[in-house]
Amino acid sequence: xxxxxxxxxxxxxxxxxxxxxxxxxxxxxxxxxxxxxxxxxxxxxxxxxxxxxxxxxxxxxxxxxxxxxxxxxxxxxxxxxxxxxxxxxxxxxxxxxxxxxxxxxxxxxx
Amino acid sequence: xxxxxxxxxxxxxxxxxxxxxxxxxxxxxxxxxxxxxxxxxxxxxxxxxxxxxxxxxxxxxxxxxxxxxxxxxxxxxxxxxxxxxxxxxxxxxxxxxxxxxxxxxxxxxxxxxxxxxxxxxxxxxxxxxxxxxxxxxxxxxxxxxxxxxxxxxxxxxxxxxxxxxxxxxxxxxxxxxxxxxxxxxxxxxxxxxxxxxxxxxxxxxxxxxxxxxxxxxxxxxxxxxxxxxxxxxxxxxxxxxxxxxxxxxxxxxxxxxxxxxxxxxxxxxxxxxxxxxxxxxxxxxxxxxxxxxxxxxxxxxxxxxxxxxxxxxxxxxxxxxxxxxxxxxxxxxxxxxxxxxxxxxxxxxxxxxxxxxxxxxxxxxxxxxxxxxxxxxxxxxxxxxxxxxxxxxxxxxxxxxxxxxxxxxxxxxxxxxxxxxxxxxxxxxxxxxxxxxxxxxxxxxxxxxxxxxxxxxxxxxxxxxxxxxxxxxxxxxxxxxxxxxxxxxxxxxxxxxxxxxxxxxxxxxxxxxxxxxxxxxxxxxxxxxxxxxxxxxxxxxxxxxxxxxxxxxxxxxxxxxxxxxxxxxxxxxxxxxxxxxxxxxxxxxxxxxxxxxxxxxxxxxxxxxxxxxxxxxxxxxxxxxxxxxxxxxxxxxxxxxxxxxxxxxxxxxxxxxxxxxxxxxxxxxxxxxxxxxxxxxxxxx
Lengths: 110, 685
Description:
The complex is a heterodimer of chains A (110) and B (685).
Chain A: E1 2-8, E2 11-20, H1 25-34, E3 41-52, H2 54-69, E4 73-77, H3 81-90, H4 92-95, E5 98-99, H5 102-108
Parallel strand pairs in A: 2-3, 3-4, 4-5
Antiparallel strand pairs in A: 1-2
Chain B: H1 5-97, H2 102-115, E1 122-128, E2 133-136, H3 157-168, E3 170-177, E4 186-195, E5 200-207, H4 209-232, E6 240-245, E7 250-252, H5 273-282, E8 289-293, E9 303-312, E10 317-324, H6 325-374, H7 393-396, H8 400-446, E11 460-467, E12 475-481, E13 486-494, H9 498-518, H10 522-535, E14 543-551, E15 556-562, E16 567-570, E17 577-579, E18 598-601, E19 607-611, H11 613-616, H12 628-635, H13 643-658, E20 667-674
Antiparallel strand pairs in B: 1-2, 1-5, 3-4, 4-5, 6-7, 6-10, 8-9, 9-10, 11-20, 12-13, 13-14, 14-15, 15-18, 16-17, 16-19, 19-20
Helix pairs in contact in B: 1-2, 1-4, 1-6, 6-8, 9-10
């Protein structure tokens, strides 16, 4: 699991690569929370993500809760393949807004 | 033995010293021998030169005194001859004045000459042309002929003198006087003058014996002087000078033990040593002769001598010098011997120091080795100060050994600490494992265990299994009758694993039971559960859940799927299909979500297969997922089989896929086969 972040138009874009499963989820949670600022607008770019387990979903959920408590906003970009399947199965797709590209996601955020 | 540091150190020092000593001794010996030999040779040469000088000066003195003596004699004899001549003149003058006839005058002259007194050893003599001795101081020889008497060259005296004296007026000769048989033949020197008036030769002669004796005395004196001088001169220690004449007579003997020197032969050339020495002396530059002779003991070991020789031509003497090579080399040998002693002393001293030093160095090393060997038997759990037996080394030794000891003590201290820590950790882990074991039992106790669970219900068969990846897991399954007709079953998967998941699972299962007790709609059961779970969920945990309620009379199935893997339906004459419909998202993630109820009709023989993602996402050693297609494939020919058999087939296939890889997630399966209610009628109703 690798985690890279950049800022586009005051929007934090974090890219996740590799796998987020029960083993890498704790590191992923720490890495994500480190990059969070109060009230931030965050785009999670999952284009490079090969696999996400329920533990990974929990991490995203936890991040979303933190953002929600500080009036921040979280959207997804490039949710494809296996990850999209997992999102659909788990119903994550109905909780989070998903965009086809980072640019679209950034543009959609206020 | 060579594997000991001590031996190596000593050997190193020994070899170094031996090399230095060897080189120093070798070069010292070589150079000193060369230098000493050259010096001794020079000194022998100098001695020889000095002795030669002394000899020559002595000889000059000898010669001078001899010449002086001869001159004195000659003057005396000249005087005597002059007196005799004047006397004869006077006699003849008186005879003429007296008118005496010539023969009387001659007679008177002879008598006068005979009557002249002479000193001992000297005499007058008078002879005529025929060699007739007219007058002589010795009465016994008067009137005899001089024929027998010869001069030193072997010419008859009268003849030799007559010619010279008549021509020159005077002559000198040395001759052997043999005319008086009563006296021993005597060597005499004579001075002769011609007395032409009468045709006579007047002579005055003197005994040369005296002169000879004087010469011999002087010569003896010279030799005695030389001898005493030679006695004080030593070449090297006992080498000496010696003097011999042409015939090989030893004039001055060399030092003791060399009396047979000239008679011996050269062991190589075979020539007599006299010849060798004479040849040596005849050489232009000074050279020496080296020769091995078995003197002083005739059969003793040969001793090498160095011989020098010069010739004193005027005397017919040879001056020799003898030196002993072993004595020449002796100082070098002694120096080397002394040096060797010094080296031996240095050797012993250095070796002692090295031994002491290496013992001092290796003893603590041995102690450390023994200490290290004893470490495995040490009881590290017992409280003790680390470094028993070597504790004082780091302070006592500030060198590498001390540092090593310090490191070992530090190591033991760390070992003790780590082992104490390990023991504590192990104890805590054992306690936790024990607790986890109990937790597992409790957790498994929450799940229905009796399988097959309802053997007296012909409407369906059911089998379920749960295999936790750790002691406790986050998966759950449950089934129970809501009443005689409605049968509720559920499969869930809590996010994450281990204790947190298991706690969340226990809560979920409890909430399921309590919600199901109040409600028969799986969607509203799920909504209730979601709200309850999400209300107090600080760690954002959730559960994916499939809840189904089957009407056993009609085969109508109401179900809800909250983010769970789609169940598989095995129907008659159709391939297995995923029931992909969704009721809503994961349960517990967010509040206030309305879940949608889903419905389907089961025909007798239809089989439902529920599972968690531990099945489809089971990974092999290459991180490949088991995957949905493979699940469908293995289930493809399972229609009509017992639920237990179906579960076992899938479990075996998953286990085959996982192989040696670590189980990555909990695996849960539930299989329900509906038989229909019509065959035997609903039991119990």
